[in-house]
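quick q for whoever's on today - can somebody do inverse folding on this one?? i tried earlier but teh output was garbage lol. tokens:
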């Protein structure tokens, strides 16, 4: 399953096998979008679906395998289910037959550790209603009330969706602007966009597309050039209010763009919009402190075809090695699966821009490193630092409070 490639709110449905997770999804969507069977374990791997829930709106809903699966294969399914916790904005926990034990408590610990709001529903209450003593135990353990429901009828749809709507953090619906505070109406924004083998055939990469749209949404003038035509553009005598470049071209572009024109990178812009910007500012200079034998963890949020021009797997390690002059070891982890590494082994963690993941997913991805006190950086900031233009590349964001906000 491809994870994280949709920025709508992510809702995970969790519980033991045959607790009605798939029928719950069908109930709230009003469609047969999930396979329902009386046989336990029908859902073997997490399944992500883009759906519209009346009263809530467009969301990504994740149907997970039962957390009580058995056998070696079952353990792998449980691991995949637990990994989904890092990717969600809201969790729904289904219980049945008044069963609330270690499986449920372990899930709730993970929800609370990652500050994920969650709801508890007691399903199949037509066969076995929720007992008061079970309700009391759940209340004492979680501080939450649980609701009796039956997923094979639409009688509970309104109540359930109302609770879900109220529980989803309002921040996930806020359309954050890439360039808010950096530009104002009628500004000229220059985007420098190299085209290499990593760029999709016939189109631009997502950060470039989103930047163009954001410039236009601010009623500004967008000028896009390749780095090979940058000199030609500047000869026209047009002075942009802001220049944004692909991080890989920082060295060349910074030597051409005059110092009085603010300059930053696409990856840094995304870092500011997503999460942990202050931690990146603090952690990036630790690149200079790397020693022989240190390990660097490089995190890619998406999965893609790897080429010799791949920034995370080839270029970034090469640049760090040359910059530090040290014998560094590198690990690269792609996607959003759980990190199967000891985070304490690493001297620094460097995260990609995260253009295809949600703010919550990116925040959870870096949480183990931040909690352990491991310095973190971002592709764009790390590259700017190694090119000697770190202060210049982050300056536009540090000066945001001095800029008037756009009325657009």
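ok took a stab at it. sequence:
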């Amino acid at each position: 399953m491809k994870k994280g490639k949709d920025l709508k709110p992510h809702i995970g449905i969790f519980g033991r096998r045959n607790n009605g997770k798939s029928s719950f999804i069908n109930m709230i969507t009003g469609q047969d979008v999930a396979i329902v069977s009386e046989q336990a374990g029908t859902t073997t791997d997490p399944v992500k679906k883009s759906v519209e829930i009346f009263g809530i709106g467009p969301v990504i809903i994740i149907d997970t395998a039962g957390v009580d699966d058995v056998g070696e294969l079952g353990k792998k399914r449980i691991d995949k289910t637990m990994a989904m916790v890092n990717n969600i904005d809201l969790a729904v926990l289904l219980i049945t037959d008044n069963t609330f034990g270690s499986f449920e408590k372990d899930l709730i610990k993970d929800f609370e550790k990652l500050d994920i709001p969650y709801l508890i529903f007691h399903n199949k209450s037509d066969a076995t209603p929720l007992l008061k003593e079970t309700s009391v135990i759940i209340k004492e353990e979680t501080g939450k009330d649980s609701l009796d429901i039956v997923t094979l009828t639409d009688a509970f749809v309104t109540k359930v969706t109302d609770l879900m709507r109220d529980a989803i953090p309002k921040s996930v619906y806020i359309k954050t602007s890439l360039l808010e505070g950096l530009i104002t109406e009628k500004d000229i924004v220059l985007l420098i966009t190299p085209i290499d083998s990593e760029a999709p055939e016939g189109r631009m990469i997502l950060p470039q597309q989103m930047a163009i749209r954001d410039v236009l949404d601010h009623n500004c003038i967008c000028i896009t050039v390749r780095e090979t035509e940058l000199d030609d553009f500047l000869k026209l005598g047009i002075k942009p209010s802001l220049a944004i470049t692909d991080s890989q071209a920082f060295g060349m572009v910074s030597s051409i763009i005059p110092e009085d024109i603010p300059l930053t990178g696409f990856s840094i812009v995304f870092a500011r919009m997503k999460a942990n910007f202050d931690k990146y500012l603090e952690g990036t200079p630790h690149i200079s402190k790397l020693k022989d034998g240190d390990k660097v963890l490089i995190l890619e949020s998406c999965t893609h075809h790897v080429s010799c021009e791949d920034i995370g797997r080839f270029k970034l390690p090469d640049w760090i090695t040359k910059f530090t002059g040290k014998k560094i070891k590198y690990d690269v982890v792609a996607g959003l699966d759980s990190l199967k590494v000891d985070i304490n082994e690493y001297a620094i963690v460097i995260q990609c821009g995260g253009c295809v993941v949600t703010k919550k997913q990116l925040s959870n991805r870096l949480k183990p490193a931040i909690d352990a006190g491991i310095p973190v950086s971002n592709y764009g900031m790390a590259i700017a630092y190694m090119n000697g233009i770190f202060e210049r590349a982050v300056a536009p964001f540090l000066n945001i409070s001095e800029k008037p906000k756009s009325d657009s």
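fwiw Residues 1-5, 40-44, 304-308, 401-408 have pLDDT under 50 and may be disordered. also Residues 10-173 form a domain with the Rossmann fold fold (CATH 3.40.50.300). so keep that in mind when u check it
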